[in-house]
Amino acid sequence: MSFEYLTKDFIFDHTTSLKVIEEVPSYYIFPTVYIIYSKKTKKAYVGESTNIPQRIKNHLQHPEKNQLENIKIIFSPYFNKSSVLDIEANLIQNMIADKQFTLINSNYGIAHHNYYQKNEYENTFKDIWKNLQFEKLVKNDLLDIKNSDLFKYSPYKTLSEDQYDAIREYLYLLNNNEIKNTTFIQGSAGTGKTILAVYLIKLLLSEISQDELEDNFEVSSLIELVQEVKSKLKKNKEQLKIAFVIPMTSLRKTLKKVFKSIYGLSPNMVIGPNELSKDYYDLIIVDEAHRLKRRKNITGYQEFDKTNRHFNLDKEQGTELDWVMLSSDNQLFFYDEKQSIKPTDVEKEKFDFLKLNATVIKLKSQMRVEGGEDYIQFVDKLLSSSDDLISWKQTNTYELKIFTSMKDMINILTKKEKEYGLCRLISGYSWKWVSSKSSSPDVILDEIPLYWNRTSQDWINSTT
Fold first, then answer.
1. Which one of 200, 211, 355, 425 has the fewest beta carbons within 10 angstroms of its own beta carbon?
2. Alpha-carbon distance 203 to 230, whole Å?
3. Considering Cα of 145, then 147, then 150, then 153, what sign does the dihedral take?
């Protein structure tokens, strides 16, 4: 089920507010969702309002928005404040990943909402999206967008309460500390650490205008806090200097593409640890911090040694973790000690020592899978060969299947891939990686040759 709605298109100029009042029945006007756009410049702004005629007037005072040419307004007598906030958030997230327009929105207004008949309003959004496709304002299907990297890592995300609380706590720490601040945000795989990092960077680099503040009363306290933090960290400079350090090459390449597509961000903000010697930062955010390296079993000893010399560190003892600490006033590490699996990784003891004088914020809510907390505990204990293996009951929305035949499993995965996309067969370090130096398979199971990923970059999307 979805709700009835009406869309109206107008030229975006000083006559628009009057035309809306003249042409749209009054019971439709409160509240609304809208898209202001220019096909010429390929820029757009998505918003919602409880007073669309006044909001249009406000936007026309903005030096960038008044350059946009058209506005599409979505009306419905069934809309309420929570529903239009949700539809607005869905439009922003999906239009960013659709890449037909560059959105000039800040990300202050994206907040989590649970409300009456949420499922019905989500169906309404899907109908709206299909109409936008028909009108060629958007191009891609929602399922294709959901599987894209730009959707997964977009800063325009509806945060969980867990994530939102972590953002607020960290901003308070930055605002209240008079000296350098070191913080760890810890969480297991799938708790949304990378998404939170990208969200935070966009939050700190967004400039919010007065017209965007009008209906954002729910996050007004957060906006004030962000402004205070920015003012404090900038120290009279025009712009904050933030680096997003990604130790893993494949993820770094993906996030550079994401940052290139996001208004106000730049791929140059996403760097590898060895680039830290080139500058000094107000804030360094390290994703996958457990993958920072030490001088052991690495490729490129010469470059590693050169960076250690730059920081006056001992050739054998200096690590990428040390480089982060010496290159910034404030450091935020997204960290999960259980994901440290290589001998090149900085030892857990070094992180433990650093945490003695740092703040630790924990993420617990699972974002990647829908099996629930019992399922996560079940998998953790299964993979760690725990004697205390708890049971897990299947739900109607989540499947767990155990196969005794590799052929059967691959057949099922192939069907799932055609239906949903991004179904992958993965394994831990279970066999020697012989295919890295030859064409031989790494293992043969049930007469099926299996290979490790053939590329170090964007391997999750690779078909080989």
1. 425
2. 10
3. positive
